[in-house]
Design goal:
The structure holds two protein chains of two kinds.
Chain A (H helix, E strand, L loop, with lengths): L1 E5 L7 H9 L8 E5 L5 H12 L2 E6 L2 E5 L3
Parallel strand pairs in A: 1-2
Antiparallel strand pairs in A: 2-4, 3-4
Chain B lengths: L19 H13 L9 H21 L6 E4 L2 H15 L6 E5 L4 H12 L3 E5 L9 H6 L5 E7 L11 H11 L3 E4 L15 E5 L10 E5 L25 H39 L3 E4 L11 E6 L4 H10 L19 H6 L6 E5 L6 H21 L6
Parallel strand pairs in B: 2-3, 2-4, 4-5, 5-6
Antiparallel strand pairs in B: 1-7, 6-7, 8-9, 9-10
Classes of the chains: A alpha+beta, B alpha/beta.
Chain lengths: 70, 386
């Protein structure tokens, strides 16, 4: 199961905030996909994963995929 | 009457408050050195004497010869001229430029301009502390590399760069090296190994409106703008002599106070790093935690779930002037290229730049003001419990 968060048009920190709010909605090992066209998200989402101990799977276009690790 | 910045002014990495020695030197030079130093009558000769003395003083502070030093209207212009003039003179070797990914935007803007004109540019990546790897930088040098650019230290997070090791690699490859010393001049001893050096007086307690470009004798460089014989043909339009005199006085004063002030400010930075990490949840302290690997006066951090612009505004309201590399605080709405290259949180970013006027009590006041401001901003966006 995965969760998809459409944050199109939102500026940071909102996409990261949405991610933090919803990471608990998936099981450990499952993924959250954040759709964000904010250029800062490409840096902030991997940085959030590093700080919070989750896995940044990768980004394709505006889709940033994060796997819950704990 | 302009109020001098008090202890709430924490953006000396943008502009340091004018040093008192610069203020008195400026007053004297405005009275005595207002003539055009290129004229041969007595007012011109007096201005020329003052300008020559200022140039000799700044050259000595930078470890250069007086005839290697050119005054420019800003550090940005010094960097532009240094980069473009060296590339122009090095065309026979090639049109390839190497720079770190975290250079000041002035260096990167000149690099982009070189690219638009058909040149090629390689930006060397940095680690999470903002530091380039000297071996990786050396590996980017090619037979057609006409110039390499590396800052002495990063202006946004304070991380020192391995300038000596990179200078050695550049010398071995026969590539001239431009050291952007804007962030460190007056704060650390000047770098020893460089071919071109750029700096900015307002960062060391001199007045705004004075930049310095030093080009070592024998290094290939050519003027970028038309030559009108000012500054030995290196930059047209003449030098504002009183400002140059004040800049030299400030740098001499900064050098005299450097050891004591660096130790004092570095200890304040240690305290700021430790206390913010302890008192503000979900914050990332940026740059090198080891004081030997960073500038003594710069400290930067990013607070999760907070917009940098809002944080800056609230701190301003509380009497603290800081800068931010967050995208919402830039006119282009793009985050700082330094934070992006480091791969650290770009939102909620704050940079403090300390100076001689910042006391222990000022730091205590800032450390007491910050946690409730961050907490209130998080509550506003419903991030309080995350």
């Amino acid at each position: 199961m995965s969760v998809r968060l459409d944050c199109t048009g939102q500026l940071c920190p909102l996409p990261v905030l949405e991610l933090a709010r919803h990471i608990g909605a998936v099981e450990v090992g499952d993924v959250v996909v954040v759709v964000s066209d904010d250029p800062a998200a490409a840096t902030d989402i991997p940085a959030w994963c590093r700080m919070k101990g989750h896995e940044f799977v990768g980004a394709t276009g505006t889709e940033h995929t994060v796997r819950r690790r704990h | 009457m302009i109020t001098p910045p008090g202890g709430g002014y924490l953006d000396a990495a943008t502009t340091a408050p004018l040093h008192p020695a610069a203020r008195s030197a400026l007053e004297v030079a405005l009275a005595d050195g207002w003539g055009d130093p290129r004229r041969l009558y007595r007012e011109g000769r007096r201005a020329r004497q003052l300008l020559d003395a200022a140039r000799a003083s700044i050259a000595a502070s930078l470890g250069a010869r007086p005839d290697e030093v050119t005054f420019t209207p800003s550090g940005t212009v010094a960097a532009h001229l240094g980069v473009l003039g060296a590339l122009s003179a090095g065309q026979r070797r090639g049109r390839h430029l190497v720079a770190s990914a975290v250079e000041h935007s002035a260096v990167l803007a000149a690099a982009h301009s070189h690219e638009r004109a058909g040149g090629t540019v390689d930006l060397v990546p940095v680690d999470v502390l903002g530091r380039v790897d000297a071996a990786r930088f050396a590996a980017a040098l090619r037979p057609d590399t006409a110039l390499a650019c590396l800052q002495t230290a990063n202006h946004e997070v304070g991380t020192l760069q391995p300038l000596d090791a990179v200078a050695e690699a550049c010398a071995a490859a026969g590539v001239p090296l431009l050291a952007d010393a804007a962030a460190s001049t007056g704060r650390l001893a000047p770098p020893r190994r460089w071919d071109l050096l750029a700096a900015s007086a307002r960062k060391w307690g001199g007045p705004a409106g004075v930049g310095v470009l030093a080009v070592r004798t024998g290094v290939r460089w050519r003027p970028v703008l038309p030559d009108d014989e000012a500054e030995a043909g290196r930059f047209p339009g003449g030098v504002p002599v009183p400002l140059a005199v004040a800049a030299a006085a400030a740098l001499e004063a900064a050098a005299a106070e450097r050891e004591a002030e660096s130790a004092r400010q570095s200890a304040l930075v240690d305290r700021i790093r430790a206390e913010i990490a302890r008192r503000v949840p979900d914050v990332e302290m940026l740059g090198d935690p080891d004081p030997r690997g960073r500038l003594p006066h710069i400290v930067a951090f990013s607070c999760l779930y907070v917009a940098g612009e809002a944080l800056m505004a609230e701190l301003d309201r509380a009497g603290f002037s800081v800068s931010s590399g967050s995208s919402c605080s830039s006119s282009a709405l793009t985050p700082s290229h330094v934070l992006v290259a480091m791969g650290v949180m770009t939102h909620g970013n704050v940079r403090l730049g300390l100076h001689a006027g910042v006391t222990d009590a000022d730091v205590t006041a800032f450390l007491d003001a910050l946690p409730p401001i961050v907490a209130a901003l998080r509550d506003q966006v419903g991030a309080g419990g995350l």
